Amino acid sequence: MIIIKFSKDLKDYLKKRILPRKFIGFVPTMGALHEGHLSLVKECRKMSQISICSIFVNPTQFNNPDDFKRYPKTIEKDILWLEEAGCDILFMPDEKEIYFNKKLREKHYELGYLETILEGKFRPGHFQGVCQVVERLLNIVEPDYLFIGQKDFQQCLVIKRLLELNHKKIELVICPTLRENSGLAMSSRNLRFNLKERKIASELNRCLLAIKDKLTKNNFPNLKYQAVLQLEKTGFRVEYLELAKRNNLEIVTQFKKGEELVILVAAFLNEVRLIDNLLIKG
Q: Whole-model pTM?
């Protein structure tokens, strides 16, 4: 695996060393890697001839500065894992390399409804930051395929919108959420839990599964009420728990036959914020 820190060096390397017509796959990350990230690299290698992973903790997508400071950093382990996973190139830029002028940090994207609900509502400015860094990375890497995880479901739709806005001919590949044995969705933030908290955190997924199993045409509001009570009793502070249409995240309360829906949740356990989702088909 080759480690590159400057965009010019990456572009030069790809131009000189990579033969034309080779498909490039790209996995953007913020480090603190886990098996979920490695599954993206695996899928990337399967579909692409050149696999590129980036590690960059993007400050513009953190609406809470303390959250940015506390974000886990495990760079030595990350490099080792990526080497073992067979990643071809690791791109590790610093902040000045990504945001080399003020305009890049201030660019605004018309995301419409997606930015007003769920994550957009509770983390104002978050998706603008996501778009800023993803656009910059895509302009540097110029991949054929972009691999991201389903756990950040709303972010997947935001990035799809970004590709549409920029008319990018990049295939977005959304990979399934990987989970720990307890059902807890794998996340870099899980590193901040002790063993007891990790066990409690798995209750988030159990509540989603219970809703999915019991969901009928009109009973979601009651299931939501019961799930929030259970989570709060367990120690969570719930921000949202909603049922929405998969294609645009329009919030719904009824379960209609044939509709492709998703249940989404965000909740704090102590100071750690977790998100999860579960796909539903009517």
A: 0.95
